[in-house]
Amino acid sequence: MEDMLDYTVLVSRYLLAGLAVLVLGSCVFSLVTRRFGKRVGSYLVQKGSKTRYPLTRWENAIGRSKTCDLVFDTASVSRFHAVISKRRTGWVVADTNSRTGVFVNGEKIEKVTKLNHGDTVAFGTAAFWFADADVDDRERAEEAKRLKAQRAAAKNAKQNKQAVFIPALIDEAAEKSYVLGCESCIIGRSPDCDIRVKYPAVNSQHAKIYKNGSAWFIEDLNSTTGTKVNARAVSGGRRRLRDGDIIGLGGVIFVFDERYKKQ
Amino acid sequence: MPEKKVTAKPKKKQQPFAWVSMLFFVSAFQIISALPVIFGSEEINREILFTFGGFLALEWGYFICARFLAEQRATELEIIAFMLSGIGLVTVASVKPEYAFKQFIAICIGLTGFIALLGIMRNVEVISLLRPVVAVGAVGLLGLNLVLARTINGALNWIEIGSFSIQPSELVKVAFIFVGAASLEKLQSTRSLTKYIIFSLGCIGALFLMRDFGTALIFFATFMVIAFLRSGDIKTIGLLSAVAVVGAAMIIYFRPHVASRFETYRHVWEYANEGGFQQTRVLIYASSGGLFGLGIGEGRLKNVFASTTDLIFGIICEEWGMIVAFCVVLCFAFVAVYALRLARNARSTVYTIAAVASAAMLLVQLALNVFGVTDLLPLTGVTLPFISRGGTSMICSWALFAFIKSADIKTYPKLEKQMDDA
Amino acid sequence: MNTVTKRAYVLLGIIIAFMVGIGILAGSFFVNGDIWATSRYNGHLYSAGQITNAGKILDRNGVVLAQSVDGKRVYNRSRSIRISTLHAVGDTYGYIAYGAHSLCRDKLTGYSFVNGIYDLIKTGEGSDVKLTIDAELCKTAYNALNGKKGAVGVYNYKTGEIICMVSSMSYDPENKPDDIETNEKYEAVYVNRLLNGVFTPGSVFKTVTAACAIENIPDINSRTFNCTGAYKTPQGGEVICNNTHGKIDFQTALTKSCNSAFAQLGIELGNKKLTETAEKMGFGKSFNVSGVKTSPSRIDLKEAVEIDTGWAAIGQYTTLVNPLNFMMIAGCIASGGSTPTPYFVQEALTEITGNLSTNSLLNESTANTLKTMMRNNVINNYGDSRFPGMEFGGKTGTAQISGEKSHAWFFGFSCAEDFPYAIVVVSENSGGGSEIAVPIASKVMKELKNSL
C-alpha cells in the first residue's frame, strides 16, 4: 500500500501536469477558436429609392456620425439619432435625444416603441419601411416559390412548342421588366449599359448576363454592393441562371424570367 | 452606403466539444490530486473523502443537467471553472482540512449563483430593471460593512454572520459590473458618465475607508475599462486617472501602513524576515518546486501566513509545479481573449461591457495576486480567482464567468435558434 | 454598437500587458530560480540557518570534506583538514561567502529548473561537488604557516587546477570558537586571503620592476649598479638597502634583492612605464576563480614623486598585491607568458576544457628572461636542495610594515615539464621571506612532489 502510494506520487507529478495542459489547453483552444456567424436581422427600406439597408446586429445605432452602425448623412438626421434593437418581444426603436425626432407610422415616439414588419419609421425627414428579416425572407421565399411554380407550369405548357424564348429581368417592386435582347448584356446604372437600372445601389457596370449554348449565366463585374442569386453571393466566376431565380443587385431584387417572350 | 455585403461564411460542421471525455480527464486530474490528501495520513480522512465525493457528484451532475436539460453545447468555461476550483479545493484540504467542506459549500453557492446570473442576464430588459436595485444594494452593503466590520489583516472588509464571514467587497465586484453594463440606447441617450462615476466613487471610497487598497485598485481599473467602453471619452478618463495618481500619492504619504509595502517592493531580499517575508518565501518555494512540483502536501510554503489565500500561487508552484501554475494563469488570459471575441460579436452592449469588464477584472486581480507575491508588483493581498480559500471570492469568480458566458449566444439555445434558423 | 465593440480592444491591451508580466515572471524564475531555491531561508535545505540536506563536497582524491548525515551537515573527520580546507569548502551558515557551500549551492542541492529540488527531497541527496584541492596538502600548508595569518596557494599552471588553497587564520567549523568575533587572532577570518587578501608586496614586486626594465632598457644585462647600502636619488631622496652589495649586475641585483639597484631602475623607468607593466601583469584586474572575483592588486603612482617611485619599485609605497595574482605571474613566467585562470571546483574543468580562458600577463621573451633569472635566484641564494628535482625558480619578499614585523613572501615555480606547479606563500607579520616563506614553500612542494 505504502509502495503503491509512493509510486502514485512519483507518476502523478507528470500526470497532473499533463492533464492540466490537456484539459485547460483544449478548453481554451475551443474557446478562442469559436466561430461567430453574422446575419441580417432586419432591413430598413428607404421610401422612394427602395434601397434596403440591412441591420446586422441586435442593437444598431442610427445617425449621421460615421461611427454609427447605419449611417445616413442627411441634415435632418442627428449624429446619434436612434437605436433599433432586438428585444425579447421583438424589434424596438428608441429615440436617443435626436433633434428632429423619430416617427413610427407617423407618430413621434417618446419612449421605446415596438416596430412591426411593414411599419413606417422616420428619422427626421428620412422615411423607411421596416422589414423584419425573418418575415421578409419568408415572404420573399414564398413569393419566389410561387413564381417558380407558375413558370414551371408555363414551361411545361410551352415545352411542346419547342420555341426559343427571350428572357427578361422583372423588377416586381417597380413593376418594370427589362428584356434581355442580346446574347450578352451588361447591367448597370451607366447609360451605355445594355440594361440600364436606375437604383443608387447598383453600380454603373454591375453584372453581366450572357447566353452560353442554351443556358444563361450571370457574372459579377466587381460591383461594390455585390450580386446574389437566390440570396447566395456570386463572387468571382459565374452562376447558372434558371427560370424564376431571384437576382439581387446590391439589394435590388429582380426575378429572372427565362421565358418572358417568344422570339 | 446601401446594403453591405453580408456573406455568411460557408457553414462547416464545427467539431462538437468533446465534453464527456474532457470531463473524464478533469475527474482523473482531480482524483489523482486528491489521493495523497485523502490517503496521505495514517487514517483515511473521511470528511475530506466525502467532500471530494460531493464535489465530483456536483461536477458530473452539473454537466449532465447542462447538457440534457439546458441543451448547453458549449461548456468549456465551466470545465475551466471546475478545474480551477478543484485545484483550490485540494490545496485547501491539504493545508487546512477543516476548511475543505466550507470551500466545497462555497463552490456549490458559486455554481448556483452562476446559473442564477445566467438566467438574469438572458434578457436586457431584466437587467435594466434590476440595475438601480443592485446599485442601491451594493452601496448599502458596503455601508453596512463599514458600520459592522471588524478589522482583519489590517483591512476592515469582513462581516461575521454566525460561523460564516462574508467579504461584501467581493459581492460588490459583481454588482459593480452589473451596474456598469448598459444597453446601447441608454449609452446613446445619456452620454454623460456622472451617475456611474458617483456610484463608483461611492464603492471605491468605501473600500478606502476599509483600507482594502488591493480591491480598491481592482475596482478602479475595472471602472476605467467600463468608463472607456461606455463613453470612449479619453479626456475624462485621463483626468480621473490623474486624480487617482495624486490620491494614491497622498495615501502613501499619510498612511505608513501602505507606504511600508512600497518600501519592501523590489527590495524583498533585504527585508527577507520582515516586510518581504511572504514574497521571498513564495519565490524560494516556487522555484524549489521546479516544473513538476514536489507533490501535493509536500511543500513548506503552506506554513507561511495567508498561504491558502494570498500566497496560493506559490503553493501551486511548489507542490503542483510551474506547468500547472502557469497553465492556470495563462488560462485566464485566454479566457480574456475569448471574452474579447464575444464582446465584438455580442448581441447587446450590455454583454460587451459585462464580458470585457469581467475579463479585465479577473486579469487585474490575477496580476495583483501573482505579480504581488512574486514582487513584480507591490503586495496588496488580493485573492487568486477560483483557487484561493474564501467563499465570497469563489462566488464572485463564478459570477464573473457567468458574465462572460452570458455574452455567448450559445448559452441561450432558444435565442440562438432565432438567430440561426432563418 | 460598432463604436462600443471597437472599444473592447482595450481588453487586448490588458491581456498583452498581462502576458508580458507572465513572461517576465517565467523568465525570472528561469534566470534566478537557482539563487532563490537555494536561499538560506529555504526550509527544505536549511534548518536554523544551516544547510542540512545537500550533496557531498570531495577533494581531488575523493576525500569527503563535507556531507549530510541524518539531516545534519558533517565535515571531514580530521580536525586539521577541517580547518585547512575551510575556506575552500565554506561553512553552512554562509559566513564564508566564497566557499564551495555557497558557490555550488545549486549543484549541491541538485537544483535544476525542470525538477527544482525534488530529487534532494525524495532521496535526501543532492549532487556531489568535487574540488581540485588536495586535503592533505592543504593540511601540510596550513600547519607550515604555523598559526600565522597568511595564505598558501599552489596550482598547475598548465591546467589551472588549484591543488592547495589555504588561508590562515581559519577555524574548526564543527567547533566554532566563541570569541571569533572579538579575538584579534581571528581578524578577517572569513576572508579567503589567497583570493581576496591584498598585502604589501616588498621585494616580490621587484619582479615587476625587472620585467619593466627588461622590456624598456635594451642594455639591461650589461648595466652595473653600485650599492653603497642606500641609493641617493638625483633629487636628494634616499632608499635604504638591506645590505651593501657593491658593484653588481642586473641578475645579481635580483638574486641579492638589492634595493639600491631596483630603486634606481624604477626612477629611471618612471611612473608611467612601471604602471603599464604592472597593469599588464594583472594589477587592477579581478580574476574569476570558480565564480569568486578575486581582489585586484593595486598600484597607484599618479601622485608619486621621485622618492615614492623609488620605494614603489621595491614593493613598498602604497602598492598592495593579491597572492593569487602573483601565483599566476609565477605560472606565466614558467610557461612562457600565459596561464589559464586558476579554479578549484572540479566541475569547472569540463566547462573550461574547450574554452580555456587564458591570461597573458607577460611577453614570451620577458617571461623566459625572468625564468632564467628566478631560477638563478634559487640556485644561488635560496638553495636548490630545498626544491629537489623540481628545477625551481622563485623570488622572496620581505614587506616592511610600520610598527610591526614584516610580511614574509615567496612565489615561485617549477620548470620541470612533468611538474608544472607554481606556488605563492605569504605569511603576515612573521619576518623575512627567506627565513619564513621559503621553508613553507619547500615543505609544501616537497610533499606535493612525493604525493604524485
Cross-sheet strand order for the largest sheet of chain C: 8-7-19-18-17
Shape assignment of chain B: globular
Measured on Cα atoms, how large is the radius of gyration of chain B?
A: 22 Å
- Helices of chain C, by number, come to 17
Which structural class do the helices and strands of chain B define? mainly alpha
Per CATH, the class of the largest domain in chain C reads Alpha Beta
> What is the average of the pLDDT values of chain C?
88
- Describe the sheet with the most strands of chain C: 5 strands, antiparallel
Helix content class of chain C: 25-40%
Q: Structural class of the secondary elements of chain C?
A: alpha+beta
CATH fold assignment of the largest domain in chain C: Beta-lactamase
Walk me through what this model shows.
The complex is a heterotrimer of chains A (263), B (422) and C (452). Chain A has helices at residues 2-32, 133-159; strands spanning 42-46, 52-55, 59-63, 70-71, 82-87, 90-95, 102-104, 107-108, 113-115, 120-123, 126-132, 165-171, 176-179, 184-188, 195-196, 207-212, 215-220, 227-229, 232-233, 238-241, 246-249, 252-262. Chain A is α+β, with helices and mostly antiparallel strands. In chain A, the strands form four sheets. A six-stranded antiparallel beta sheet of chain A has the order 2-1-11-10-7-8. In chain A, strands 13-12-22-21-18-19 form a six-stranded antiparallel beta sheet, with helices on one face. In chain A, strands 4-3-5-6-9 form a five-stranded mixed beta sheet, with no helix packed on it. In chain A, strand 10 and strand 11 (126-132) form a beta hairpin. Chain B is mainly alpha-helical. Chain B has helices at 19-39, 46-68, 76-95, 100-120, 124-148, 168-180, 184-189, 194-209, 213-231, 234-254, 256-264, 277-289, 312-320, 322-344, 349-373, 391-406, 413-420, and strands at residues 150-152, 155-161, 164-166. A three-stranded antiparallel beta sheet of chain B has the order 1-2-3, with helices on one face. The longest helix of chain B is centred in the first third of the chain and has 25 residues, at 124-148. Chain B contains 17 helices and three strands. Chain C is an alpha+beta fold and 452 residues long. Mean pLDDT of chain C is 88; it is low at 348-355. Chains in contact: A-B, A-C, B-C.
